[in-house]
Amino acid sequence: MATALRGAPARTIRAEDISFARRVTAFCFVLVFDFFYGWAWNTVDLLRPDLIDAFGLSLTQASLTYTAQSAGALIGAVVIGQLADRFGRRNLLFVVMIGYSVSLASGAICTGLTELLVHRFATGVFLGGVFPIGVSTYTALFDRNQCGKLAGFYNGTFNGSIVVIGFVVSGFGTEWRELLLIGAAIPICLAPLAFVLVPNDRTTIPYGITDVPPPPRKLPAAELFSPALRRRTLLIALMVGLNFFAYQAFAGWQATYLEKQLGLAKEVSKGLIGWQFTATIIGGFFWGWVADRYGRRANALGFVLAVALIALYLLSADTYSELLVIGFLFGLMLPASVVWGPWLAELFPAHLRSTATSIFNWGRIISLFSPPITAAVANGVSLGAAMALGGVAWFLSAIVWRLLPETLERRTAQV
Q1: Over the stretch 339-389, which tens digit does the pLDDT of each residue have?
Q2: 75 exposed, middle or buried (CB, 10 Å; 0-12, 13-18, 19+)?
Q3: Largest CB tally within 10 Å, which of 54, 201, 321, 388?
Q4: First to last CA, the chain
């Protein structure tokens, strides 16, 4: 039975009062939301060799598609995260799901670089809202001590999309335009179910919160830069930015490295990457458990181990079996950051959940410089040297990670 809360509208209930089955169903829908986000996002990297061949692009030109998408995601995160806190996360979930589907499908009719950049920028705007909406939705429905493990599932859907794309290409030889259309058609059909399967966050008090959260300001992001929160906000943006720089430097060029430098066939390359991201799904569950057991900061170790594996991958792996094994082990380390979603929600007041978790995409300010920098290094030195910059950035991100506060043991109404 719903519990009435003092000072709350009559229809307001606590998340604890929603049945477990209903909350799990909502979480499953959020996973679908994130799966097709991953599909849309990762095509910018996985299809880069195809775009180079289809449009005759240089490495630098091809890298600009990621820059355009990241710029859009940065804007989308800032704008959509705040809109979600003000007008409802469920409402914006529907809007974003339709938006990233339509904009992704537009890529199938592009005929040149300019159109590709516009397509990727528009797609990025909507994709930038996915993380703040998805994470703030499921963390509001479950106990904090469960959120690390739930983040493992959330991580699995994003990386699972890469696995599916890799296996679809290697198994069926699907053409790149078809991949864009597949990733757009399904979420368009499913988006209306958000209003049926996801509880209305405008009338639900987040799990573990004892008081009705105050309404957000007209510009919720301004609160993140209050004296009490400013340092925390900036450190998180730096940590996430270094992670995005690292991911784009290494993983963003991986398909190109395997196909253009090592000479592997497209099907072999995509298959290797598919297996690597299969490992990230497994690793997500492991690191989610570690975060719930030993704290949010413990997972920084995963980034350090990833750096060592990058060195092995670039310096000694040249056979299929070596690339497979080292890539798989690297994939296990990559999702150490799986807990960042719940952690960001815990580090800030409950009424700022969407805006706070949007900091995840603010870090793309730094990652915007990754494509031109790594392309310049690839052209001037080697593609391997450019990818090695990812290891440096991940190590620095791990250092910043350890500077932020632990939240697992804190149970106040404000975080």
Answers
A1: 898 898 888 887 777 778 888 877 777 777 777 788 888 888 888 888 999
A2: middle
A3: 201
A4: 26
